[in-house]
Amino acid sequence: MEKVAVVTGTSSGIGFETALALAREGYYTYATMRDITKGDKLKELASKENLKIDVLELDVDNENSAKTAIKHIFDQKQRIDVLVNNAGWVLWGCVEDVSVNEFKTQFETNFFSIIRLIQEVGPTMRNQGSGTIVNISSVVGRIGFPASPAYISSKFALEGLSESLRFEFAPFGVDVIIIEPGVIKYKDITTKVVSGVKMMTEMGTPPKEVANTIVKAIKDEKPLPRYIVGNDAAMFLEAKKNKTDIEFENYLKKELY
Ligand SMILES: NC(=O)c1ccc[n+]([C@@H]2O[C@H](COP(=O)([O-])OP(=O)(O)OC[C@H]3O[C@@H](n4cnc5c(N)ncnc54)[C@H](OP(=O)(O)O)[C@@H]3O)[C@@H](O)[C@H]2O)c1
Asked: What is the spatial distance between Cα 27 and Cα 24, in angstroms, rounded to a whole number?
């Protein structure tokens, strides 16, 4: 039976690579993006490699757009095996610089939209008795840093949602996986902003590595709750595990200032 995957935010970066990686694994892949004019490169690669990639419009912030896209997929394929909640962006600014409305905008894409999509695909996955939901969090879903508290809070919220969902979906054979990348190397802005963080820039990871981890995770017979991607992420999370809160804060301060 043909397996069907849906990935959000595939116009660039991790989403782009994940759509390709899933299609290369044989999934019929709906590569969704809010502006489908950005889908030409994916379409070109799909036709060159004979991959089953369907570029589909989906603005995750827009309830109608989400409902329409998911309905279209069900009408065409009657199933969804993998949903990768990848679309996201970073709102920079310290707590006092960012209005509550701006916080809400950040949460709309990085958190509420994911609830909306899970509510759309959940009933079908439960009826199928199978399915995997992959939520792209971040190392900052478990560690606070300065300068992007809205983004970091949205990823902390996503971690809590994902951990809870694992219990709710497990009896139905539906897996929930959290992916926690560290800094992704290709992003100019990230590189600039974190250039003060010595090790992070040196240890950045290409987006392809995140895509490969997602494929490996969904193929695992018993997927783990979390997959960390990148030496920087692994290093920070390991340090957090082994230190008291104060020791860890001091360790981060040494890295940051
Ligand atoms: N870059 C990193 O260092 C890093 C580290 C850890 C985790 N992550 C997470 O990885 C995920 C992918 O990020 P990335 O690094 O690949 O960045 P990216 O290249 O900027 O990709 C983000 C994608 O999300 C899409 N998007 C944003 N708002 C959307 C909306 N309302 N509806 C649909 N799509 C929307 C963007 O579409 P447009 O082209 O239309 O803007 C783009 O396709 C995010 O969740 C991010 O938080 C990134």
From this structure: 7
